[in-house]
């Protein structure tokens, strides 16, 4: 098969790489596109989009291929695949980076940290920049530097018609607003421009572990600690078994533990002070908080969520951890059957909540925490049904406390109303922008914002 002037690779079912090319991070997703258009430049993206329109093909956009709902790949249609476009160009003097639409966070972190710079990104280095950024972008640095979208300066976008345009505060500002949270609903982003901030490259960071039996005590302490923490401090609480990482002694592997991961975006001496009370809490099994290279910290947990394993997520935002909530979490967090299943609680606030709700398309800026209940099982393992049921049960138990959801944590089987839930008060404005830039809803293989009809 050929498409005129397309300079990337077209991978169809008869191609030796077809199965590898259609596979995404979540091994539970098994779809068969008619063609995977692996683009090598922005012009290829535009050519692929025009071809898709001419042929009336279903369109999926693939950045890093990490979305748990599997929206990066479709059945029968075309995958506009940016995985060969991973270039990152850092301008250390201007404090910004140009990042191609298929880059992974590890690509950005390494390039920026070579100059002692960073922007808020995901906490696993093999996650795609594009999908994460377009949904908002939460990570260790968000409380200090804002969401990923708060650091977005401009984007180069290929529209549903196959036109290439630039979007920023001054150019197509309505589109720029929508791209900062509205996901892949408006166009294919071939390149991003991010603001970078000084960081490290060595920061005080790492996890500290307690026995699962200490969960109540740790969470009661953590709620005060987190609510008084300076914006420099990012924390993520993880519930599950201790993974078999080289840094974790073998006798702790697979033991149920509550972990508080930390990263301090400021001077190490100050960080030591701030973290001292947490490290003095109870009897930790292991304290791995230490001066670390930020790039190493960013990839420390990569091997706990490998490509090709099966994943099922449920997620919601939560308020500050009241006694009732702590009880529900302690009761359910360790009830999964797979040793690889886990729960994460992200702590938002700080710079995230300081931006006005309507300033970008990211909904629910006021949320205190995002929780994600993640069933994980490897191919051939039979934990799937039990851990899907566990995640649903746990999610139902959180019902009275739920406060919206982060769009990028929505799974494949969510009701369409959950997309509305993700956007809250900004939803109607997103519909306006969608109606202007993609009236035919060409980009619907996503967490879809439907255009107005007629
Ligand atoms: C292990 C793991 C860790 C994670 N950690 C975090 C985290 O710390 N913080 C956080 O905020 N999120 C996190 N996420 C969620 C993450 O934000 C989403 O999975 C996101 O979709 C990943 O982006 P991607 O490019 O890999 O997505 P893909 O699966 O490639 O794409 C998902 C969707 O994004 C859109 N999209 C992708 N590329 C483009 C593009 N170039 N132009 C336009 N639209 C595009 C499309 O609609 C596509 O369907 C994590 C996910 C995983 C699996």
Question: What does this entry show, briefly?
Answer:
With 454 residues, the chain is of the alpha+beta class.
* Spans of at least 5 consecutive residues with low confidence: none
The dominant shape is: globular
Query: Sheet bearing the most strands, described?
Result: 8 strands, antiparallel
Give me the oligomer status.
single chain
**Residues in helices, as a percent range:** 25-40%
Number of helices: 14
Number of strand elements: 19
Q: How is the CATH topology of the largest domain named? A: Vanillyl-alcohol Oxidase, Chain A, domain 3
Any idea how many domains?
3
C-alpha-based Rg, rounded: 21 Å
Binned strand content: 15-25%
Tell me which ligands are bound.
Answer: flavin-adenine dinucleotide
CATH architecture level-2 label of the largest domain:
3-Layer(aba) Sandwich
**Roughly how many Å apart are the termini?**
36 Å
Mean pLDDT: 97
Structural class: alpha+beta
Structure commentary:
This protein has 14 helices and 19 strands. It has 454 residues and is of the alpha+beta class. It folds into three domains: 9-81, Uridine Diphospho-n-acetylenolpyruvylglucosamine Reductase, domain 2, CATH 3.30.43.10; 88-199, Uridine Diphospho-n-acetylenolpyruvylglucosamine Reductase, domain 3, CATH 3.30.465.10; 202-409, Vanillyl-alcohol Oxidase, Chain A, domain 3, CATH 3.40.462. The strands form four sheets. Strands 12, 13, 14, 15, 16, 17, 18 and 19 form an eight-stranded antiparallel β-sheet that branches. Strand 8 and strand 9 (164-168) form a beta hairpin. Helix 7 (215-227) packs across helix 10. It is globular, with a radius of gyration of 21 Å. It starts with 8 loop residues before the first strand and ends in a 17-residue tail after the last helix. Residues 25, 61-68, 71-72, 82, 101, 122-124, 127-128, 130-132, 134-135, 137-139, 183-184, 188-189, 305, 408, 446 line the site of flavin-adenine dinucleotide.
């Amino acid at each position: 098969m050929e498409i005129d002037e397309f300079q990337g690779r077209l991978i169809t079912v008869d191609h030796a790489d077809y199965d590898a090319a259609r596979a995404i991070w979540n091994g539970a997703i098994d779809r068969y596109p008619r063609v995977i258009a692996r683009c090598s430049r922005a012009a290829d993206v535009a050519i692929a989009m025009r071809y898709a329109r001419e042929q009336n093909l279903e369109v999926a956009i693939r950045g890093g291929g990490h979305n748990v709902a599997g929206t990066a790949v479709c059945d029968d249609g075309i995958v506009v695949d940016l995985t060969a476009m991973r270039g990152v160009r850092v301008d250390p003097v201007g404090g910004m980076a140009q990042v191609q639409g298929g880059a992974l966070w590890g690509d950005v972190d390494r390039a920026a940290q070579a100059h002692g710079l960073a922007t808020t990104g995901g906490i696993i280095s093999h996650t795609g920049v594009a999908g994460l950024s377009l949904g908002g972008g939460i990570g260790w640095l968000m409380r200090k530097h804002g969401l990923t979208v708060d650091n977005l300066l401009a984007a180069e976008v290929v529209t549903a018609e196959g036109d290439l345009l630039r979007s920023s505060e001054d150019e197509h500002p309505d589109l720029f607003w929508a791209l900062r949270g509205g996901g892949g609903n408006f166009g294919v982003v071939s390149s991003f421009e991010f603001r970078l901030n000084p960081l490290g490259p060595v920061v005080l960071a790492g996890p500290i572990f307690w026995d699962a039996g200490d969960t109540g005590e740790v969470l009661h302490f953590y709620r005060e600690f987190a609510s008084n923490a300076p914006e420099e401090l990012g924390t993520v609480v993880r519930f599950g078994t201790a993974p078999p990482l080289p840094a974790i002694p073998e006798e702790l592997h697979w033991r149920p533990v509550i972990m508080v991961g930390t990263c301090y975006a400021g001077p190490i001496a100050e960080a030591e002070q701030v973290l001292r009370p947490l490290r003095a809490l109870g009897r930790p099994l292991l304290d791995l908080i230490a001066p670390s290279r930020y790039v190493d910290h960013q990839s420390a947990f990569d091997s706990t969520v490998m490509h090709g394993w099966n994943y099922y997520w449920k997620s919601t935002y939560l308020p500050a951890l009241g006694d009732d909530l702590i009880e529900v979490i302690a009761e359910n967090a360790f009830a999964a059957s797979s040793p690889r299943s886990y729960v994460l609680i992200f702590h938002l606030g700080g710079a995230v909540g300081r931006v006005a709700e309507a300033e970008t398309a990211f909904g629910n800026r006021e949320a205190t925490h995002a929780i994600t209940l993640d069933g994980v099982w490897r191919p051939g393992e039979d934990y799937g049904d039990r851990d899907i049921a566990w995640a649903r049960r746990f999610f139902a138990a959180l019902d009275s406390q739920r406060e919206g959801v982060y769009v990028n944590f929505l799974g494949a089987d969510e009701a369409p109303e959950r997309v509305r839930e993700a956007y809250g008060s900004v939803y109607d404005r997103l519909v306006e922008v969608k109606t202007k830039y993609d009236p035919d809803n060409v980009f619907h293989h996503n967490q879809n914002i439907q255009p107005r009809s007629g």
